[in-house]
Specification:
Helix content is about 35%, strand content about 20%. By secondary structure, it is of the alpha/beta class. It has a five-stranded mixed β-sheet with strand order 3-2-1-4-8. Strands 11-10-9-12-13 form a five-stranded mixed β-sheet, with helices on both faces. β1 and β2 form a beta hairpin. α5 crosses α6. The longest helix is centred in the last third of the chain and has 25 residues. The C terminus is likely disordered. Zinc ion binds next to loops.
Length: about 325
Amino acid sequence: MALEVVLGIDIGGTFTKIGLVDRTGSIHFEDEISTRGYKAIEDFIVALHAHVMGRFETLDFSFNLLGIGVGAPNGNYYEGTIEHAPNLDWKGRIEFVRLMEDQFHLPVVVTNDANAAALGEMLFGDAGQLKNFLMITLGTGLGSGLVVNGDVIYGHDGFAGELGHVLVYDHGRQCGCGKKGCLETYVSATGIKRTAYELLAESNDDSEIRNIPFSKLKPVTITSLAEKGDPIAIKAFERTGYLLGRALADTVAHISPARIFLFGGLAKAGKWIIDPAKQSLEKHLMPIYQNKIDIVPSALLDKNIAVLGAAALIWKKLDHKSLPDKDRD
Ligand SMILES: [Zn+2]
């Protein structure tokens, strides 16, 4: 019998990653194409379709493709749209699911990348038995997927769970969303860089970061410098973790998660970000919540969680549909 698979697609600002994923979360084929260089979304979808179909012909196993799950910035699960995504070339409100279904003739679902990551953790990672947890993705920005009572929270308009844009400081750093002082301007790959340079300006401490231009500094470099004892690198993690923990304490008061997963480039810093975040979380929690909630790296940290999450999204929908009515929630 042909292997049953879905196509997981993660649309990023620069690259779009794709993978054929079976029900157990095994990826049987992975590839990527550029997201840039297509004036209209229609051109991108045609190119994506041609690329995927071309590559499928080269595969040496037979499979039955059941559907397509997509994680995209500002992807709206309810509307099937991508709306005003700041990092994509296509502006406004895009009827993404309709265009994809017209091209691929398969069921298509879309959500934002952090919600997809939360679903990935639930279906294929360490959140299997958890009904309430939080997924924080620390990439260029900060994304969040909130799972409550076993479901991703979408809210009335499909855009719930934008923890990256809660206010940290009045009149704080300029955010890409137009507001000032959003959490992701402090806690993200870009945020920790801004903090590192702020620290350089505030102190005379010796630091290798003084010799690295802003555009060249990567979170992984800050991590390796922290490991060598670089005081600016260590302080940058402390400040970043502190603000993350403080913001998470508020989110705990809203949804009371059992666990908080971190994913993304900055999550790979491990204890450097997690230890100060935990300390700050405990410090800012009401006593009823204290010493109950763990902050851990995602179990899929070294895998393509975005593609797995997008695949989980469509698997969840397909499997849900095939359940008898009485078993649906
Ligand atoms: Zn913002």
